[in-house]
Amino acid sequence: MCVICRRRFAKAELNRHVLTAQGNLSIDAEKTRPGRGWYVCSDPVCEQKFAKYRPGARRGAAVKRGTRGTAGDSLDKGGKHA
């Protein structure tokens, strides 16, 4: 599935991107590199939007706030949303 438009494609039709050790996104042409991968279709609109994509931005903000961003974090002791 394309992470931008959320349409489903065969894996061979998608471009896989992974984070380098320096934190930059690079294309994984063989689709075999370790780590979290993001799949993007070949639609030019999706490619342009993905060029601005910054993986982990929300997770980094949650860490700075002191929250983890998991489903259970927003529940109070009674099991209701806070």
In short:
This protein is α+β, with helices and mostly antiparallel strands and 82 residues long. The protein contains two helices and three strands, in the order E-E-E-H-H.
What does this protein structure show overall?
The protein is α+β, with helices and mostly antiparallel strands. The protein is 21% helix and 15% strand. It contains two helices and three strands; from the N terminus they run βββαα. The protein has helices at residues 44-51, 57-65; strands at residues 15-19, 25-27, 37-40. A three-stranded antiparallel beta sheet has the order 2-1-3, with helices on one face. A hairpin with a 5-residue loop joins strand 1 (15-19) and strand 2. The protein is globular, with a radius of gyration of 16 Å. The protein starts with 14 loop residues before the first strand and ends in a 17-residue tail after the last helix.
List the helices and strands and how they pair.
Blueprint (H helix, E strand, L loop, with lengths): L14 E5 L5 E3 L9 E4 L3 H8 L5 H9 L17
Summary tags:
alpha+beta, 21% helix, 3-stranded antiparallel β-sheet, 82 residues
Question: So how many helices?
Answer: 2
Task: Note poorly predicted spans.
Answer: 59-77
Largest sheet: 3 strands, antiparallel
Helix content range of the residues, please?
10-25%
Q: What's the multimeric state?
A: single chain
Which structural category do the helix and sheet elements fall into? alpha+beta
Distance between the termini: 33 Å
What is the β-strand count? 3
Mean pLDDT: 76
Percent of sequence in beta strands: 5-15%
Q: In one word, what is the shape?
A: globular
Order of the strands making up the biggest sheet = 2-1-3
| Alpha carbon gyration radius | 16 Å
**What string, H for helix and E for strand, traces the elements in order?**
EEEHH
